[in-house]
Design goal:
heterodimer, A: 384 residues, alpha/beta, 5-stranded parallel beta sheet, 4-stranded parallel beta sheet, 17 helices, 43% helix, B: 464 residues, alpha+beta, 5-stranded antiparallel beta sheet, 19 strands, 32% helix, globular, binds flavin-adenine dinucleotide, binds iron/sulfur cluster
């Protein structure tokens, strides 16, 4: 296994499961399951034990490995020099499990669906661009930007709404962009996170080839997960493009007054998506957008920015739901954290977070108190 | 007998009990060198009533119980030597009450030092507690259980001296309050003016009861903190330097470290002096007193203040000091352990020499750390070695070196702190027979079935 030579270096001290100020537990899987085995240190020790044949693969071992949301809180907080590789180590262990064919059925199904349908929803590729019907968003044909939407934005009801909001805003601001529609392929970020390195490479190479063929130079992504894959992994496979997340684009459009805003009055708290925040260091753009809307009062949660608590959807859990469910599920914990601020709106910048938190609001029966809105949806409400 | 897992699940809920191999593997060991031993069950209670029910069940079925905080003592104290139930306390982490004017806090038995620190910083910025340099996950109850020491120990003694009250689940499953809280709603004292019963529990490693609540004394938090480092290459002078420093009554915390690497540290003993103040004047005045107190060592050219770069200052002022943990990676190996006897300060020079000698003989990376307790009444001297978990031979050498360090410490008048089971055996053997008998009587009366962390403080050494 990759990184095999460093797994034994974990001291199991547990800094990695806390926030930077130690105020709370911040590893979503530990927070839910509460056995040390579900904390980063536990995973490290169990991976080593598994490699040494001291424990066998089991359903529980799989649950422990696949309930990691790859949220990178441990990367942020571990005090040791190998901290940067923690998520990579967990993914490498999953890779090893995929290679040995010992993965949870839900993960296998997810990967199979991507392999055979190109998306996890088992929907035909032809439906991929349907969300854009009735909008002025055009097919990609050499425009300045490719607007890459991804599987959730293309097929999920909640995701589609957000894709429309973003697409409409960008078009309204005069950004020259186009979408791939049925030609779009899965970005593969979750495939990689779930340990299917071969399938990820296949998807990435396909995408890169298509982007190149179409002459794509600049990409705006809807989903921070795609943003991450394009930015971090595609260059190594020959895919060098200029990548930005749509909140970064909105921030600059608002600054240059391409999107004239009036007022949207609301107390808003912003939830940092792990793949935008901790993984890629972008904390400011979404806040800039929200901060520039007259009437928006931005209230931070205790756990924000580097210390943000994951919604539980990362690392494939959005699709596999290994981490979901129950009172201590990360999304419900996060919603309660948002509630504590007194906000009316949880602003998100990721379609996966939006769906996770929407469901959690229902589970917490807070529909009358809290609403989840994407940053683009909030901007839309404030358009003059 | 009903299936124990099922019975435990009835108490804590199915999700919070495990007898699976994954938990059995992890909870069988700690980051130190003690041999692993698997528990049969791991449970995560949320309330004191749940603990009571677990203990009653265990008592009835004569199943061993091991309470566990963060498992960071490094001396194997949470390894279930005889199997049974490990009770991971960390779901019980509420901060129940802060009495600001009486300066105490009541917390549940699984609350971590980190959590309390963050809570006080946010809500009571003028109050603080004595934070040890163990990882921030370390729990308060366990830390007082092992008589830990922290940032305020120079001034106020062991962290267990700062306990202001306990709620204990006895081995029978009954709850018992210890201290003023046994007859008053206020938790201001663990003993005086009553008979001090806290000694029946503190220092016993959970062998006489489980702490479900602990009240801790809080102390004024000054607005500013600063650190100075006094360096001498004459270890023989360290006790005198500490004597002068503690005489000033101006110092928050005194730690000493010595290590061979990097080169500039070699042969030097670094006395880390933390001071606090509410104003610049107060801080400057204290620093001046400290400078004056050490003037004679400077004049004789036996020592001097080192200039401390801002980044280094930050490292030393940080609470807890994370670099204490990263020592575990010096050999790129994930492990360190120390034998940390409590000694009188005069013993520092010989212990420091012994540690260096052991490190050379066993070819190990070492580090001297020592913390002054209670104005020099004693100090904790850590014989610390770092090891590589992937290197069996290095681990064996470390074990041997530690064993020798323990024997040495005991022979030169030291008393083991958080002793491993081997050290406990050595201590019991050497102890005054009447004291030993008293320990035996207490243990037998409180825990007749011997279910509480068995193996620990077992007077019949064969049972260890
Ligand atoms: C890097 C490093 C630095 C350290 N520095 C310091 C330091 O500066 N000062 C210091 O004091 N210590 C230090 N330690 C030692 C130790 O980590 C701490 O004392 C820590 O507070 C122990 O807490 P824990 O929760 O990890 O205890 P654990 O190891 O979980 O438990 C210790 C003992 O207490 C018992 N116990 C746990 N909870 C309960 C309970 N609720 N009721 C009854 N018994 C219980 C356990 O059975 C065990 O016998 C250090 C350790 C490390 C690794
Ligand atoms: S991953 Fe890092 S912070 Fe976490 S337990 Fe291991 S060494 Fe400690
Ligand atoms: S990446 Fe997140 S979920 Fe995974 S171990 Fe680290 S902190 Fe926990």
């Amino acid at each position: 296994m990759k990184y095999e030579e460093i797994v034994h270096r974990c001291f199991r001290c547990g800094y990695c499961k806390l926030t930077g100020d130690y105020a709370d537990f911040n590893c979503p899987s530990y927070r839910k399951f509460r056995f040390e085995t579900y904390a980063p240190g536990g995973r490290m020790w169990l991976i080593r034990a598994w490699l040494n044949d001291e424990i066998q693969n089991s359903e529980r071992f799989q649950e422990i490995l696949f309930s990691c949301a790859t949220c990178a809180n441990c990367v942020e907080q571990c005090v040791f020099t190998f901290s940067d590789d923690l998520v990579n180590i967990f993914i490498a262990a999953r890779e090893e499990m995929v290679n040995r064919g010992v993965i949870p059925p839900v993960v296998r199904d997810y990967l199979k669906n991507i392999y055979s349908n190109g998306n996890p929803y088992k929907e035909p590729a032809g439906e991929r661009g349907k969300w854009s019907e009735g909008t002025p968003i055009e097919a990609y044909d050499g425009q300045e930007y490719l607007f890459y939407v991804g599987c959730v934005g293309s097929y999920d009801e909640r995701g589609k709404k957000i894709a429309r909001a973003v697409g409409n805003l960008l078009t309204k601001a005069g950004v020259s962009l186009g979408i791939l529609g049925s030609r779009e392929g899965c970005d593969g970020n979750e495939v990689r996170a779930l340990g299917e390195a071969g399938l990820f490479q296949f998807l990435a190479e396909q995408n890169i080839a298509l982007f190149k063929e179409l002459g794509v130079k600049k990409i705006i992504t809807l989903d921070p997960h795609a943003f991450n894959a394009f930015k971090k992994d595609y260059p190594g496979l020959g895919g060098e493009f200029e990548i930005c997340h749509y909140t970064q684009m909105l921030a600059s459009l608002i600054q240059s007054q391409k999107l004239p805003l009036t007022e949207y009055k609301a107390r808003v708290t912003y939830h940092d998506p792990c793949y935008l925040g901790r993984h890629n260091g972008e904390y400011e753009a979404p806040r800039k957008v929200l901060g520039s809307i007259p009437g928006v009062e931005l209230i931070e949660m205790d756990q924000s920015r580097q210390n943000a608590f994951c919604c539980g959807g990362g690392g494939g859990n959005f699709f596999t739901d290994i981490l979901g469910g129950g009172e201590d599920s990360p999304s419900r914990v996060r919603v309660r954290q948002a509630l504590d601020t007194g906000a009316q709106v949880i602003a998100v910048a990721c379609p996966q977070c939006a769906k996770m938190l929407d469901d959690a609001i229902k589970a917490e029966e807070l529909e009358d108190t809290l609403e989840v809105l994407d940053v683009a949806e909030i901007v839309t409400r404030a358009l003059s | 007998m009903k299936d124990v897992t099922l019975s435990l699940a009835e108490v804590v809920g199915e999700k919070y009990v495990s007898s699976q191999p994954e938990e059995a593997y992890f909870y069988a060991r700690d980051p130190g060198l003690m041999p692993a031993h698997k528990p049969d069950y791991v449970v995560l209670p949320k309330t004191v009533e749940e603990i009571q029910r677990i203990v009653r069940l265990a008592n009835k079925e004569k199943i061993p119980i091991v309470p566990m905080g963060a498992g960071m003592s490094l001396s194997g104290l949470v390894i279930p030597l005889k199997g049974g139930i490990v009770i991971d306390m960390k779901r019980m982490n509420k901060i129940i009450e802060v009495n600001e004017k009486a300066r105490y806090v009541i917390v549940e038995g699984g609350t971590s030092h980190g959590l309390l620190k963050a809570y006080l910083e946010k809500r009571y910025p003028r109050l603080r507690h004595s934070i040890p340099d163990s990882p921030a996950t370390a729990t308060i109850a366990a830390n007082v259980m092992i008589h830990g020491q922290g940032r305020l120990s120079q001034q106020y003694g062991f962290n267990s001296d700062m306990v202001a009250g306990l709620e204990i689940v006895l081995p029978s499953g009954d709850i018992c309050k210890i201290g003023s809280c046994s007859l008053s709603p206020e938790w201001f004292s663990k003993g005086a003016p009553l008979p001090d019963l806290s000694g029946l529990f503190l220092g016993w490693f959970g062998a006489t009861g489980i702490i479900s609540k602990v009240a801790l004394k809080l102390y004024p938090k000054k607005r500013m903190r600063d650190v100075e480092i006094f360096v001498t290459d004459r270890e023989d002078l360290v006790p005198d330097i500490i004597y002068e420093l503690t005489h000033t009554e101006m110092v928050e915390d005194i730690n000493i470290f010595a290590q061979p690497l990097p080169m500039i540290f070699k042969d030097n003993h670094h006395i880390v002096i933390c001071v606090t103040g509410d104003t610049d004047e107060e801080l400057e005045f204290k620093k001046k007193m400290i400078f004056d107190a050490l003037d004679r060592f400077i004049k004789s050219k036996d020592g001097g203040f080192m200039s401390v770069a801002p980044a280094m200052k930050e490292t030393f002022l940080e609470m807890p000091q994370k670099s204490a943990s990263t020592f575990a990676d010096v050999t790129k190996g994930g492990g360190f352990e120390y034998s940390g006897p409590i000694i009188v300060v005069e013993r520092y020079p010989e212990c420091a020499r012994k540690l260096e000698e052991l490190a050379t003989r066993y070819a190990l990376k070492y580090n001297v750390t020592a913390r002054v307790i209670g104005r020099g009444h004693s100090m904790m001297f850590a014989f610390s070695f770092t090891f590589n978990r992937a290197d069996r031979d290095m681990m064996d050498r470390t074990k041997e070196a530690l064993h020798e360090a323990s024997e040495y410490a005991l022979a030169s008048g030291g008393v083991f702190w958080k002793p491993t089971i081997d050290e406990q055996r050595m201590a019991i053997e050497r102890m005054d027979p009447n004291t030993r008998n008293l320990i035996k009587m207490i243990k037998k009366d409180l825990d007749p079935n011997g279910i509480m962390n068995p193996g620990n403080w077992e007077v019949n050494v064969d049972e260890i």
